[in-house]
Specification:
With about 650 residues, this protein is an alpha+beta fold. The protein has 16 helices and 22 strands.
């Protein structure tokens, strides 16, 4: 390794790239010095302005790249740079940079107050500093991150494997530097002629690679930046099946699986075959002469080959059929790697489903907490209306998701009073989880049953979306589907879904809006509001809308919150909640819009229209006086057809 490389401060992270990495998996934080700033300083204001400018400029840039400088005084100036991966679209770029900015500002507590920060995500990177690092693109000290995949290694001839991966990275580097204005290249090397196998006994047939430089660099600078890290690969990634190098000005990665997006490979390489040449024919063979007795030998060979081909074909068909059956059963019973337990084991773990181990009662049935390792056991009730299909749907979907705000486990019920900071963190974390489901995960998912009881809190009061039993997977480019079976929870279902069965991401947005208003008010949507005799509001949505129209939206705030609660944030959340519960789904924001609004100013929000399912208490009294029973709800028109059976889940909780 050269002297220049040896001067680099290297941060070695043991990242596990055993499968496709989530779109916005955080790679690492790098704090490049020990200087810091306070949140009420001029430098902090400059950083906030800088990050907003970088995200906007990168989103509008065709190459997902932006640099910026803010501040007048030299001591308080901030310089920044952002770069999105070359194979992601503008929406994913904006979403990734939004989350990176959130981390950079220290909202998770790790980067708070750091004056010089580099943040590496799988799909984007961000750096800001109090010094002008933009003027020195060759300086990489303190910003480099080597991440070998130590979970899977090459068992056979690892040195040659890394050498071939290095060759692939070299070819990609040449292409990115000399043939691409975006300074981005991806491709693969076919090595099926080799005998590479991993420590998990997988046969390696291809090596995939990707390299990228900032588009502002000249071809020579880009090639030099990538070449420095390529030369270090044999020493750093010795025997590993994958690895990644992240730096501000350039980055590279190789794996044994296809990890990049739909961008077609621009470089395809094939390892030269090392098999010996066929033996030379004798002069007699070339002239077509046949020796004595060759006719009988040819007949025997033909018969043997015919029988051998028939046997091999039969074996192939049998093996293929058996493999297909095993794969089908594996997918049905847990292609996520989950274990199957027999009834005896579950009875022993739960003390024969003892009542003292009962956690609660949900749509599937009762849940139990066993001894030892903390898991939850769900027992299906015969009258629950749900079964193995819904349970498997929940297990498989959750197992495929990897996000900080998604969970499948239950947490103890929190009975303590939530202050405003905690409530705002719950709103923000839930929004991030929904954005991941709708846009950023490998599979597009609609939760369909988002409600307060399905947002769990961990020990640090961070929100975790749970219960994916009713979740619906979207395939292809579909944005809306029509279902004949409406399932969910009353009070959280959007009108177009509850009445017409139209299912889209805007259903989750509506449920999120109801949840936001519940968090602000500290009451359920279905609670009746009797604040005064003059108050005619029915549900929480009706009450919040009435207060909005009166110009007193803060009246919807939980009165138990102290006087130091920031009214601006409360007003922002009320406004946002009303935007999410508008009757027309086209008027509701997307979850990406929601996150941007949470980062923005309430004055720039659009004006909400009247929410769906709003009515006054007098409407109920009138309906009852017309002969509608108290438990039957609002009377239907005579022409309305009889709906299908509703499979809504109802959750009831009991203390341990």
């Amino acid at each position: 390794m050269s002297a220049a490389v040896s001067m680099i401060a290297v941060y070695l992270i043991l990242a596990l790239f055993s499968g496709h990495v989530d779109a916005f998996s955080i790679m690492n934080y790098v704090f490049n010095n020990v200087s810091s700033y306070s949140t009420n300083s001029t430098y902090h204001s400059n950083v906030v302005t800088l990050l907003s400018s970088l995200s906007a400029n990168a989103y509008s840039s065709p190459v997902g790249f932006a640099t910026a400088t803010t501040g007048a005084a030299t001591s308080e100036q901030a310089w920044g740079l952002t770069l999105c991966r070359g194979d992601i679209n503008g929406s994913s770029c904006a979403s990734c940079l939004s989350l990176a900015s959130d981390y950079a500002l220290g909202n998770d507590g790790k980067c708070r107050g750091a004056k010089d920060v580099s943040i590496y995500f799988d799909s984007c990177l961000l750096r800001y500093s109090g010094k002008d690092f933009l003027a020195n693109p060759d300086e990489v000290s303190g910003e480099v991150q080597y991440s070998p995949n130590n979970e899977v290694n090459i068992a056979v001839d690892p040195a040659r494997f890394v050498a071939l991966a290095t060759d692939l990275v070299g070819a990609l580097s040449d292409w990115a530097a000399n043939n691409s204005t975006t300074r981005f290249a991806a491709g693969m090397m076919n090595c099926s002629g080799e005998t590479f196998t991993t420590t998990s006994f997988d046969l390696v047939s291809n090596i995939y690679g990707m390299v990228q430089c900032t588009p502002s660099q000249a071809p020579e600078a880009c090639k030099a930046c990538l070449g420095r890290f390529r030369d270090a690969m044999p020493a750093v990634f010795n025997g590993t099946a994958g690895g990644q190098v992240n730096a501000v000005w350039c980055n590279l990665r190789y794996e044994i699986f296809n990890f990049y997006g739909s961008t077609p490979p621009v470089v395809n390489l094939v390892v030269p075959s090392s098999s010996p040449p066929p033996p030379a024919l004798s002069p007699a063979d070339r002239n077509g002469n046949i020796t004595r007795g060759s006719g009988n030998a040819a007949t025997v060979i033909a018969i043997v080959l015919g029988v051998l081909v028939a046997v091999l074909a039969s074996l192939f068909i049998i093996c293929f059929w058996r493999k297909t059956q095993l794969k089908q059963h594996a997918e049905e019973d847990g292609d996520t790697g989950s274990l199957l337990f027999d009834l005896t084991t579950l009875r022993r773990a739960t003390a024969n489903f003892a009542e003292e181990n009962k956690l609660g009662h949900g749509g599937f049935g009762a849940g139990f907490l066993p001894d030892g390792r903390q898991i939850a056991v769900k027992r299906l009730d015969k009258d629950s209306g749900q079964g193995v299909k819904e349970l498997r749907n929940q297990l498989l979907l959750v197992a495929k998701l990897r996000h900080n705000n998604l969970k499948a486990s239950r947490q103890p019920e929190r009975r303590q009073l939530l202050d405003w900071d905690t409530r705002y963190r719950i709103i923000y974390g839930t929004a991030r989880g929904l954005l991941y489901l709708h846009e950023d995960s490998q599979i597009k998912i609609i939760h369909r049953d988002l409600k307060a009881s399905n947002v769990l809190l961990d020990a640090d009061m961070n929100p975790k979306i749970s219960d994916f039993g009713l979740a619906r997977l979207f395939t292809g480019d579909k944005t809306t589907i029509i279902t004949s079976q409406v399932v969910g929870t009353l009070g959280y279902m959007a009108p177009e879904y509850a009445v017409l069965g139209h299912l889209s991401v805007k259903l989750d947005v509506y449920s999120f809006g109801v949840l936001v208003l519940e968090i602000v008010a500290g009451r359920k949507n279905t609670d009746m509001w009797f604040e005064s005799e003059a108050d005619e509001s029915g549900t929480l949505l009706s009450y919040a809308w009435d207060q909005w129209m009166k110009g007193t939206p803060l009246e919807a705030m939980d009165p138990s919150l102290d006087c130091q609660t920031p009214e601006g944030e409360v007003l922002k959340c009320v406004h946002l909640g009303l935007l999410c519960v508008q009757e027309n789904p086209a008027d509701r924001p997307t979850m990406l819009d929601v996150l941007m609004m949470l980062h923005g100013n309430e004055s720039s929000f659009p004006t909400p229209s009247k929410p769906a399912f709003t009515f006054a208490l007098s409407d109920l009294s009138s309906a009852r006086s017309d002969g509608v029973s108290q438990g039957s709800g609002v009377q239907r028109a005579a022409a309305t057809p009889t709906p299908s059976m509703n499979g809504m889940s109802v959750s009831e909780f009991s203390p341990r």
